[in-house]
Structures are given as structure tokens and as C-alpha cells.
Amino acid sequence: MQSSALASHEQAEQDYLTHSIDLDSHEMAPVHFWKDLFGESAEEAVRLCSNMERLVDGGANSLVRPDIAADDIEINEDSVWNVKGPGAPAAIDFSRRIEAMDAMGIDRQLIYPGYGTVALFLEHNPSAPDYMGFEPGTVDALGLSRTIARGHNEWCIEIAREMGIRGRPIGMIPTDSIEQMLKDTKHLIDKGIRAFVIPNGTPPAGLSPADAELDPFWDLISSSQSALTFHIGTEFPLFRSQAWDRNVPAFKSAHQSLELGIQPYWGSTLGFASEVFLSAMIMGGVLERFPELRIGSIEVGANWVGPLAERMDLWSAQFKDRMSGFLSMKPSEYLNRQVRVTPFYFEDVASYFERFPHLEDVYCFSTDYPHREGGKASKQRFSDNLKNCGERIRRKFFRDNGLLLTPD
What are the residues whose beta carbons fall under 8 Å from the beta carbon of 320, sequence distance 6 or more? Predict the structure, then answer.
């Protein structure tokens, strides 16, 4: 017979492993499904992307998959953890997504774009014409980007209505002007969207994130208890030149993705845009002014979080007289209170909790489902890595920390 203590422990573990919060998943419909899902406005995107190398030859991440006629693969524990790409269960048909989440032991899930990623690629990647095979000036890239984003956002409204609290589709907010940011965000909030993504490689509306002119936007996000996130795929403009990894054999991508080149240079620099954006926000007092603002940095790894906290604390202390008028806490304390970050499945997350105990609320579980870079059996790999961290830390990672971005 089990002791009551053992039974209690197993029940607690079952709770956070069978009701985890997943802060990164995706819609991943193949190109030939786009018009059915996102409307006739997707036609030009279909034309541009049907022969795009990154989508044709992307391995499991390939979106040009005429062999897929339906989202009908059986949903079971093996398929949800080991089948990757648009052929994975519920990658296309979101009437099946909650069943897939149940099989994965996931309670709530942020849902990022698949089709909408093309909008980010067109607007924020200077190499988009080369990759998509069009001459600069022959395609209204910005106009098409906006059309795709609108189609994605309308899809989000429908999915949010169908999935309720379980699924949180991410509204895409272009940041050309404060007025447009406020208009688009308020429209989506009124339609039931509770989480948003903005580009982090370019200053919003051409302003520092800490500029008081942006305060109405931060206030709208905060007062609605919505989550504001950054996601891989918009960091490109941070670097003025795209030559840093060009023509270097060691940096040739083994696999292609619209979001990133899967290679060591990009892996080493993925977090830079989030670091710059968060440094401006925190050191500039945004999280002091808006203590309920919820921020996520998604799919850029988490190895940079601790060093960033140390740097901000160092320089805040160095300028303590100046900063005393803007911050009432250490920068690292704002980071821990209001920012959530998702490590990759292969990171030594246990070492982060050990080295940076004052940041234990930051690190969160995610699957990147159904993308191949999310890894197979990722929950088990995270669980194995954290096996010696204790019940409290494991529960924080798999469930409690992620609730900040997925509130009731």
C-alpha cells in the first residue's frame, strides 16, 4: 500500500505534468490549405511560397506538402510527441487541438502563427526577396505582410472563440505607429484575444520602448490582463548588416525554417533582440510604471537571462542616484516578476535555477508544437533535466510560471 506522503507527491507531480502550461505552439497548415483557412486574400502568399526553398526543402518543417489531404493522423501519446511538421495531429484542424493537448498533458497553450509567419518574414527579413524569389520592388512586401497579418488575426478570433481558456492564439500587432498599435490591439481585445506578439528587432513606432509616448499601449495591454510577447523571427533588423554569417561553411543551415536558420551563429545570437528590448523597458522604468504588464520572450532560448539580469543590476547600481528616480527595485526583480522566457529542450535548465535562484519565476515550459526544433519527447527531456530540482521548482517550470501569460 502506498504511504499517504508518496501518494500526495505523485498526485502533485501528476497535476503539473498533466496540466502543464505550454508557452509556444503553432498553427502549421501546408500552403495549399491557406486559402481555405485564411480566405481568398491568401492567394498571393500561396503563389509566392509554393516554390520557396525554405518551405519546399525544410525537412519536417516543409509547408509545401501536397501529399497531406487532411489532418487525420491518430491522436495518441506517440504521435503528439514524435510526429513533427504539418502532418502532426491538430497542426491544421484546430477542432482537434484540445484533444492533442490532452494527450500531451497540456492545460493551456499559446498558439503562434504559421501562415502569419510569412508576414513577419516579408517585413522583417531583408533577405525575403532572395528567399521568396521576387525582385525587390515587384511585390508590395509591406502591403502583403499586412494582408497576411489581418488574415491570421481573423483566424485567431475564430480559434479563441472555439477553444476558450485552453487555447490562446496570438494576435499580430504591426508597430508602425502608436495610433495603429492601439487601434489593432483594442479591436482584437474586444474580440477575445488575450495575447499578442510584436517585433523586437526594431523600435516600436520608431521609439524607445521606454518612451512615455508608448505608455498608452503598455497600459492597454496591462489593464486588459493580456500578454505581450516577442517571438523568434523578427530579430533581423537589429543587425544593420546581414553579412555576419554569410559564406561561412560552419554557419550553413542543416535545416530550413521561416523563423530561423538552424545553425550555431543564429543560436548564439537569438536572444540579442530580446535583451535590447527588455533592457530598454526595464531600465527605462516601463515595468515600474506598469507593474501588472506581462511580457514573454519566446523561442529564443534562456541562457541569456541570468547574465542580462546581472548586467542590468550592475549598471543600475553604478548609476544608483539617477536610477533611484525611475526604479524602486533592482532590474532583476522586475525581470523575475513580469517576464517569462522559454528555454530550448536541450538547455540545462536545472543549472539556471541553481545559478540564478532570484530568477526562478522566469523560466517556463514550451513545446514549439509541431515544429521540429521543439524536439521529440521534450516534456520528458525537461523533466529528466529537472529531476533533482525539487517539487517546487518543477511545478514552477511546468505550470505556475506560465500562468502569468495565460491568466483566467
Answer: none
CA atoms within 13 A on the CB side of 163: 30
The total domain count for the chain is: 1
Confidence at residue 44, expressed as pLDDT on a 0 to 100 scale: 93
Helices and strands (H and E) in the chain: how many: 20, 7
Q: How far is CA 152 from the centre of its chain?
A: 15
User: Cell digits for 56?
Assistant: 519546399
The predicted model scores a pTM of 0.94
Q: Which residues pair with 106 in a beta bridge?
A: 20
- Residue 11 domain-assigned? no
Which of these, 250, 275, 272, lies nearest to 261 by C-alpha position?
250
> pLDDT tens, 192-225?
999 999 999 999 999 999 999 999 999 999 999 9
Separation between Cα atoms, residue 255 and residue 263, nearest integer Å: 8
Q: Which residues have a Cβ under 8 Å from the Cβ of 174 and sit 6 or more positions away?
A: 123, 145, 146, 149, 180, 181, 184
Domain that holds residue 88: 20-404
